[in-house]
Amino acid sequence: MEDSSTDNYDGGKPEPSGSLRTFGAVYQGFRENAGYTQETLAPVIRYSAHYIGSVEQGRRLPSRKFVDRSEEALNANGVLRKAAKRLSKQPGLARWFREWAELEKQAISLYTYECRLVPGLLQTEAYARTLFEHRLPLLYDEQVEAQVAARLNRQRMLVERQSTAFSFIVDEHVFLRRTGGRDITRELIDHVLERTALRNVEVQVMPLERDVHAGMDGPMRLLETPDNEWFGYCEGQESSQFISDPKTISTLHMRYAKLRSQALTPEDSRGLLTKMRGAL
Question: pTM for the full model?
């Protein structure tokens, strides 16, 4: 049975969007029309009954493989594929970071471009705490502690997932801002340099001298699953977008590939960071 690792996902899911609920209702209709219960359909498409139930309740974004297998099993005549293509374009998916985090746990490749702050996977405790303590609206102390703990726990992936390739491209000015002061910045650069020593972690700095580059539209993240499916995630001020549309993913891939060629090499990036560290 596939995707068993996500079947124990706890109750912290974001509330369902209208598009997901609609897809779930349509899916349930096809399932019932074909004479299946969730339990009898599960072995046919090789996904758990819990996974099917989550899709039908609008709590989970269905994977492409899930949709393809369901199409065949339920004789949906392409309806489910067409409906699934619309999901990533709906505003309601802006709150699906938790779904992204679940995919991160299984990813074999993770690409991140950031121009606002150091990516969460590379932050120190002091840097993360500074960000959360100054977030508006202000958080309660216990909320800050919970957020910091969650961020540090997520960072374990870098060390524990040695077969996962992590690529980070970060704008130079993010380090020059000295968020939290000199001491926190000094510790942060030391930490980033330490992470670059890991075989599966690559960090590139986009230099200030590069006046125009492929990331002008803002931050982005890409990941590849063990099934070689690609997903994207882009954040804004009060909204985010979980992306599964192949055409959009292709565009993000094109931009990330260009960013890699425009940024400093990993070796030169380490040299620049070391120089910046010495100037503090």
Answer: 0.72
